[in-house]
Amino acid sequence: MSTTVETSDQEPTFLQKHWQKLLAGSIWLAFLLGYGSYAYANELTAEQAVQQVVDLLQSPIGPLIYVLLYAVRPLLFFSAAVLTIIGGAIYGPFWGIVIVIIAGNISAIVAFLVGRFFGEGIIKENENADGLVQTYARRLRQNSFETVLIMRLIFLPYDLVNYLCGFLRIDFKAFVLATIIGNLPGTISFVLFGASIDISQGITQPAFNPWTFALSVLLVGASIAASRYFKQREQEQLPMNNEQ
Known about the structure:
mainly alpha, 2 strands
């Protein structure tokens, strides 16, 4: 009996704590080494190797490949913002927005389902901690749609929100609808930022579009202003929620 208690009280090892990051890092390292070997074997410069990737993403099957990459992105700990900007640069403002909206929402659903499958019991309902995660966990259980929407609009870490909603097994339809609406300002802003750099003539001869860039800066500024407004409202409401 005592041996069982000691084993259960042991702190998790480094491998148990960080196996996901180590796995993701190993996948990225294998990809970089593999593509580096391919480029070396074919005597490609760094620019030529990158251009081949861009050409593949601009091919008829390119959008499908991009959506698949975006879908597995949360499992590989790759930045959503970077991939969104790349989508704008490759597909332009209109199709970039369409493709990234589809890809981003599929990515959110993948992370939600992973959290739902692996995260049962991680955040318990009887916990009364006042931390940020616990505070939003309580609100997500009470009002899923509004809370997810607010979390998107104040730019809380994208994948954290997805996994948290999966852990808590909130209503799937409310999660998807709030994610679609809440992601629009940030997605459009970052896609337009990427689209302001036209690489249709090749990555070595990019063309700068000042109007698209100005619009993206304007939307980013508006998104940040709206985010600060909603954050202020949240800070005013959180003490009230904690007292309930």
